[in-house]
Amino acid sequence: MALKIKVCGMRNPDNILELTKLNPEFIGFIFQPQSKRFIGSNIPEEIRVLIPPSIHKVGVFVDESPDSLIEKFRISQLKMVQLHGSEPAEYCERLKDLDIPVIKAFSITPIFDFSTTEPYESFCDYFLFDTAGVLKGGTGLKFDWSKLNDYRGNKPFFLSGGIHYSDIENIKSIDHDKLYGVDVNSGFETEPGIKNISHLASFINDLRNYKI
Questions:
Q1: Which class would CATH give 4-208?
Q2: CA 176, chain centre distance (Å)
Q3: Burial (0-12, 13-18, 19+ Cβ within 10 Å), 127
């Protein structure tokens, strides 16, 4: 199976149109107002029409109220949500009951205890392991990927945090049967929210030619 690709932090229509030609499996839109890549209260129609049904639109939220998230999910016609805050397992359970697919992000530190993920397994479709930072959300930095050896859960996960094209070989060297995909953002940007499409094209092509 080839690793799946999630490109996050998109907001520019022309850039998004070019990205869709690379057919990543997921495109992420950030709904956190403090982010430099904030998409707004909803994804504009001019952007929604650019994305084919084969690409999953993922809304990234940080401690959003459930009612607000549900409304934005429907208006923006999202396929999935990514929870990047301190949302409890019960929050994910409510979304699951509404048939809203969930990626739950966890901030990884040298002392992170992966048993923290266990209450979420029944209610989430995927986990995402990112670098812990002062603020909630992505940091653009890597954590020690050897820490993934401590994860013994059953839920497939995305690897995130400061991934660049130069990390290709290190990604290929990760030997974990639950590694499902990679989540990229600032490591491929020319400025916040604008991706270098040629660098992404090379990265995606190399990963898709690698089978896990």
A1: alpha beta
A2: 18
A3: buried
Name residue 34's amino acid.
Q
The token duo for 4 is 């799946």
Confidence of residue 208 (pLDDT cuts 50, 70, 90): confident
> Quick check: 128 and 106 in contact, CB under 8 A?
yes
**DSSP reduced 3-state for 74:** helix
- The answer, yes or no, to whether residue 142 has pLDDT greater than 80, is yes
Active-site residue flag, 92: no
8 is catalytic: yes
What digits encode the pLDDT tens for the residues 4-38?
A: 999 999 999 999 999 999 999 999 999 999 999 99
Model pLDDT for residues 163-201, shown as the tens digit of each residue? 999 999 999 999 999 999 999 999 999 999 999 999 999
Q: Catalytic residue, from 8, 92, 124, 183: name it.
A: 8
Identity of the amino acid at 136:
K
Dig out the tokens for 102 from the structure.
């969930």
CA distances from 107 to 24, 101, 127, 132, 212 (A): 24, 20, 11, 4, 24
Residues 125, 130, 144, 167: which is the catalytic one? 130
Q: Could you tell me how far CA 66 lies from the centroid of its own chain?
A: 19
